[in-house]
Here is the input.
Amino acid sequence: MEIIRPEVSTPHEADLAEGKLINSFMETFTSQCPDPDKWLDEDIRRNVLLTTVDAAVAWARQRSIFPLIFGTACCAFEMIAASGPRFDLSRFGMDIIRFSPRQADVMLITGTITWKMATAARMIYDQMPEPKWVIAVGACAISGGTFRESYSVVPGVNHIMPVDVYVPGCPPRPEAMIHGINRLHAKIVKGTIDNPNLALK
Amino acid sequence: MTVAVNTEETGKRIEEAIPGSVVSSDKGSLTVDSKTLAQVSEFLKNTPGLEFDYLTVLTAVDYLGYFEVIYRLVSLRNNQSLILKTRAYGRENPTVSSVTGTWRAAYYQEREVFDLLGIKFEGHPDLRRLLLWEGFNGHPLRRDYL
Amino acid sequence: MTIKTEQFYLNVGPQHPSTHGVFRLRLSLDGEVVTDVEPIIGYLHRGIEKLAESRTYTQIIPLTDRLDYLASMTDNVAYCLAVEKLAGIKIPERAEYIRVIFSELMRISSHMMAVGFYLNDCGAFFTPVLYMWREREKIIDLFDMVCGQRLLYNYMRIGGVSQDIPDEFLPAMKKFVAEMPRYIGEYNQLIKQNEIFLARSKGVGILPKETAVNIGASGPVLRASGVKWDIRKMDPYSIYDRFDFEVPTGDAGDCYDRYWVRIQEMMQSLRILEQAISQMPAKGPVCADVPQFFRPPPGETYGYIEAPKGNLGFYIVSDGSIAPYRLHIYPPTLINITALKDMMIGWKVADLIIIFGSMDVVLGEIDR
Here is the structure.
């Protein structure tokens, strides 16, 4: 969706504009986006000529994903532990965990998302180039977690953006996060060149 | 050990210096009238023997007839502590004078009390919402919210 | 040709690698020099104080874990201490010693994270963090052995702890305490004389003593400015008056002093751990008898401890029912960042990150 950036000249006006944007988010994103899970169907039609090329490209894509960590709370530290020396993430090619959306493939939402932060989350999701995937890590990102009844927590990040893999836990162990990443690899392998996300069908 | 100072004696000393300020001084805390709060805070910080130069907690509770603002003061030199309270009446516009001039520790805590409970602090240099955004409707920690 | 300069606003936004969480700084810059700083928080405000009004006293313990999520044992201890003070419950001896052991282990782990990420901000990208992580994984294994969780333990209960420590815990801990001083010596050897580190930390971000007391700072930030105030010594809670340890202070109040105070506090924690292991009773109950729907008498209290980040306190008002009437959490890191304006003005943007890293903030505690 288009986010309109207003012209502001003082910090106070910027605060007021931010508040209006957050209120508009609270009114717009009231229901969940549908999950892109068509890849679980067994009979996805493929064109015979492109099968080998598709398979090669999908193999290359899954072996070198650049993650973007949107770490707000506790789960971010388990993700950093997953990239540490004990539970090594670089054996899956995901060594470069950076904070910039412009060269990222997968967005790891780790931690509670509040309505105040939701505008930043959506902006960063829009700034990522296609093909892109989203992994929601932790109970707070899946459904709001312990804080679901609170007045300022988004009840699940799939209200704001479509999510591909959900990793439950509070916080999930690094082994569970690696399992979630492997499920994402299984999804990427089934994609084609012109429809890598399998989200459009 | 940080000893809680005797509230009745301290109440008498404050009443002598600033008449009409102390409302009650029993039950381990000292309740002061909200209009004289700035003078009482200066007195507590600068008088030898009291010297409360370190403000720790500043919070407020919503008892439905009134709001009660609570301050906990510590004197690092004499190793003593004191709990000071004041009341604000009314649901629409409860007001209390600010102690940010005396103890800068009150800067963020008063903003937070304004944000979550709606109590205004007169004399605060920059009273705005802290944790919630501009345009949020209401004050969540009040007992009649939601 | 005339050259014109203009002041402009820069947003060090909530999504940033060096802000240690979702913290936003609005800077006014004149070239590269900072003229005004405004911290903006609230991006992780989850409403824990409001949620606590509709949960029983035992159900609030997992909520308190999520405050300072890098030191969640001490969060639990502070809350349980406040409730026990309100109701006048006495804890068994063995439970007291177990609480002290876990608090000090948590202090070592939290300070290691603080120092590792501070060095990360100084420019040594990720190598110090991985060294610190090596030891932290050993401490996390000890916690995993006891309560099954790596990060958010939910181990303390009102009246003691939830379960007794297994038999293999004490030998593993003795081994850890014996080999830890060698690792701290290794870090000192690598870092302390490093020219770049000294040039970036010494004299940067000075917090004078009177300002530190006026803004109500606590923890290593206050002690690095020269004020010898540690609640474990000045106002002992639990059984801290039985142990012999020192309180390190700094003199200049700059970033280097804050780093050095944390390293020395880790050594003092190891001393307390050795004494606690030798003094602990071998057998005994680990929790007082407290009913499931616990109703404390009506009243109010403020319970506080010396957490790794500072003076963490809980203010509880009870009206005799199974849920508190009001719970307020006093966060040490929110009060510590009141001084950011004094410390940051006049420095360059690169120094801001170092000053902020030396304050050791965790956003879960600031925003609650």
Notes: Chain A has a mean pLDDT of 81. Chain A touches chain C at residues 11, 70-74, 77-78, 81, 84-86, 98-99, 111-112, 114, 116-117, 120, 124, 146-147, 149-153, 170-171, 173 (CB under 8 Å). Helices of chain A lie at 11-28, 51-63, 75-82, 115-127, 139-143, 174-189. Strands of chain A lie at 67-71, 106-110, 133-137, 165-167.
